[in-house]
Amino acid sequence: MCVWILQGTCTHAKEDVYLEPSVFITQSFENEPEQKVLWLTKDLKASTKEILGHPYKGLRIRYWQHGERTAWILEEIGKVKPITTGFVIEDESMLQMQVLIYRESHGWEVRYPFFTDQFKGLQLNEQKRLKQKVDGISGATLSVNALTRLSRLALHLHQEATR
Length: 163
Hints:
- Helix content is 27%, strand content 30%.
- It is α+β, with helices and mostly antiparallel strands and 163 residues long.
- It has one domain.
């Protein structure tokens, strides 16, 4: 479904739910995970802002944990709308990144395995940057950048939560 705006371009008026967040959490663990909360202390707010380029909304971030595995559902604006993304991390390494809900009119290609698979095994260096390069998608630069920032954030939050 498209909504025509003044310039004659088409934009999606709905969100595309690829996987419900609750199903993502269930699929991410063999056993029942414990839902936890990571409070955004002054230092964590500062490091989060450094990674995202803006302050994270809220005072806490919910996550799920069983053993050394954590799962995070985070959102970041692509161009104008939030992209809801799930991350599974274990032993300082990303096991999975999956776009759960996409609301933008462009850049939806970031949901496909040819893009998301390159996040498997990613880790952070000492400067909170990804150790490996993420290849972009022509026409989806803002979505790629948003998901790259979220990946860095999820890995950083995992480090903080499992410390």
